[in-house]
Amino acid sequence: MINLFEVKRNENYLSIIILVIRLSVAILMIIHGLSKLNMLLKGGDIQFPDPLGVGKTASLTLAVFAEIICSFLLFIGLATRLATLPLIVTMLIAVFVIHGADPVDVKEMAILYLLFYLLLLVTGSGKFSVDYLISKKSRF
């Protein structure tokens, strides 16, 4: 039986929950980013915020890179800590710039994503990842 007040960590349980979080957040963000990818590929007049002052197309491209490419890297667990950085920046911009004046209920999803990305930045990808396979091979 699991002791609810135990402070030691079971590394297998930790790796499993990191896997579940990594896969879930990656899939959800890829789904979220697909509409942006479609907007980018469709061409024409782009209706997208330009919070960094680099132009709407560049801002949209950066968002697509974070939400699609970096989320795919999270999904497979490759360069996980590095892949979280653009996602963290994207969520910080969403929370504090795009939805800065909005009530918390409007920006709470971006805040939740941000918290998961911070968790993955700190924990890494866990045992069930490409990162783990690479690090295991480099030890020999």
From TrEMBL:
Membrane topology summary: Multi-pass membrane protein
Keyword Transmembrane helix part of the UniProt annotation: yes
Pfam families for this protein: DoxX (PF07681)
Domain of life: Bacteria
Transmembrane segments: 12-34, 54-75, 82-99, 111-134
Keywords, alphabetical: Cell membrane, Membrane, Transmembrane, Transmembrane helix
Record's subcellular location: Cell membrane
Membership in a protein family: Belongs to the DoxX family.
Entry protein name: DoxX family protein
Source organism: Flavobacterium psychroterrae
